[in-house]
């Protein structure tokens, strides 16, 4: 499977993997550069993000120079447990120190749910969108597991798959994998909390609980040491292993399973 | 006496495909300046929107619902977001909202003659960026109005006056 240029398959649900995703390791020789094909100014603000394209395929993504490990690990874990988070690759850009997280688009046409709600309220409240939100309920369990903090509808993205169904995914895990304490039910995003499908949540909790120690370690340890030092990798792996067994109770407490 | 003044403006573009990108489609401009001594900023938005999703412009032939959700009504949507933004930094607020297929690009600065109106300047920048000449903005009208309407685009304009914080007393 090529690392770059492989579009997110929105039609098929991610298969919960028994090993780390194939795309965890950047392909040797892959290089990225700043792009003029997509240049949202938001990318150049305080977050330090900017749009890039792969030199070979021309695929575009958003280069995030900060919280690189959080973005990469969360994306790979999401794929392992069958929830939608756009694919993240690691890469370097000429003139920018260090390795960044390159977040790929969720679909050809994609926007966040807060924006959609304001621009096209009838589409936001459509049965098709409601189904997509219910299908994305597993993200609530996932957020509880990885400890995502910044939970809002602007961090949910929607795209259409080949079968013309909407698919909702989550973005921005900059503050995940940090919070101490037990796994808690997330306080957002509101759009997900208003559309909980208990069966989807329960299935996701099952997959999180079945995510093995070796899977977790494989995903965490795939991040280069210059991005996440060894001691931090050990902390993150332990964090995930501990909280894996707490997600079910957190979902129960909110009545989501 | 100052004969030049500083303007800020941004290009608005549409990328039809965020996975296999095409050449971005220019959609319009947002032009702003602080009016000296009035504690007011003026913002002019000039943009084009597809008139009918069932008969889209050639560059938007493959656009679907989520694309049109961004394209149709974007001029009024940006104006609404400017009004809701902190006046001192509305470009950042707007660009944080418009960052998907339809996006606001980086802010650019421009020095212009004081005699040039903001609306006239916005019209010129629109023509430069989008490639469509404007002959029917009142301020730049040099001949009897002649609507250059095509069957696939509607041009829309919005002007937004904003209060800005008074300069601190020195």
Tell me about this structure:
The complex is a heterodimer of chains A (257) and B (170). Helix content of chain A is 35%, strand content 13%. With 257 residues, chain A is of the alpha+beta class. Chain A folds into two domains: 28-104; 111-253, Phosphatidylinositol 3-kinase Catalytic Subunit, Chain A, Domain 5, CATH 1.10.1070. In chain A, helix 1 (68-81) packs antiparallel against helix 8, helix 5 (138-146) crosses helix 7 (198-210) and helix 5 crosses helix 10. Chain A is globular. The termini of chain A are far apart. The relative contact order of chain A is 0.16. Chain B is of the alpha+beta class and 170 residues long. Chain B has one domain. Chain B contains four helices and six strands; from the N terminus they run E-E-E-H-H-H-E-E-H-E. Chain B has helices at residues 65-71, 74-84, 90-97, 118-130, and strands at residues 4-14, 25-35, 40-50, 102-104, 108-113, 153-163. In chain B, strands 1, 2, 3, 4, 5 and 6 form a six-stranded antiparallel β-sheet that branches. In chain B, helix 2 (74-84) packs across helix 3 (90-97).
């Amino acid at each position: 499977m090529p690392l770059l240029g492989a579009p997110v398959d929105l039609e098929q649900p991610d298969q919960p993997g028994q090993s780390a995703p194939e795309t965890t390791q950047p392909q040797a020789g892959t290089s990225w550069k700043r792009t003029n094909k997509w240049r949202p100014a938001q990318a150049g603000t305080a977050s330090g993000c900017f749009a890039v394209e792969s030199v070979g395929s021309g695929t575009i993504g958003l280069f995030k120079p900060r919280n690189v490990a959080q973005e990469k690990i969360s994306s790979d874990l999401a794929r392992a447990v069958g929830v939608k988070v756009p694919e993240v690759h690691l890469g370097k850009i000429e003139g920018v120190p260090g390795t960044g997280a390159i977040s790929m688009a969720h679909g050809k046409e994609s926007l966040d749910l807060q924006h959609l709600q304001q621009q096209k309220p009838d589409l936001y409240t459509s049965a098709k969108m409601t189904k997509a939100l219910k299908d994305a309920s597993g993200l609530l369990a996932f957020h509880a597991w990885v400890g995502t903090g910044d939970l809002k509808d602007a961090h949910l993205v929607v795209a259409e798959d080949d079968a013309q169904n909407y698919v909702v995914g989550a973005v921005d895990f900059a503050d995940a994998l940090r919070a101490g304490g037990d796994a808690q039910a997330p306080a957002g995003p509101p759009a997900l909390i208003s559309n909980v499908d208990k069966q989807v949540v329960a299935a996701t909790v099952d997959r999180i609980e079945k995510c093995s120690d070796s899977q977790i370690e494989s995903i965490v340890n795939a991040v280069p040491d210059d991005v996440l030092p060894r001691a931090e990798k050990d902390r993150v792996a332990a964090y995930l292993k501990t909280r894996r067994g707490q997600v079910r109770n957190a979902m129960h407490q909110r009545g989501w399973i | 006496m100052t004969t030049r003044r500083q303007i800020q403006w941004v290009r608005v573009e549409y990328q039809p495909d965020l996975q296999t990108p095409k050449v971005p489609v220019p959609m319009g401009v947002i032009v702003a300046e602080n009016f000296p001594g009035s504690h007011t900023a003026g913002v002019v938005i000039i943009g084009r929107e597809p008139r009918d999703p069932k008969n889209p412009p050639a560059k938007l032939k493959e656009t679907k619902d989520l694309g049109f959700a961004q394209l149709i009504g974007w001029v009024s949507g940006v104006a609404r977001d400017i009004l809701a933004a902190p006046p001192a930094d509305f470009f950042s607020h707007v660009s944080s909202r418009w960052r998907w297929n339809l996006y606001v690009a980086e802010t650019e600065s421009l020095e212009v003659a004081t005699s040039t109106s903001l609306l006239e300047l916005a019209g010129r920048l629109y023509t430069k960026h989008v490639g469509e000449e404007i002959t029917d903005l009142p301020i730049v009208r040099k001949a009897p109005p002649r609507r250059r309407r095509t069957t696939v685009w509607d041009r829309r304009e919005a002007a937004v006056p904003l209060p800005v914080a008074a300069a601190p007393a020195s």
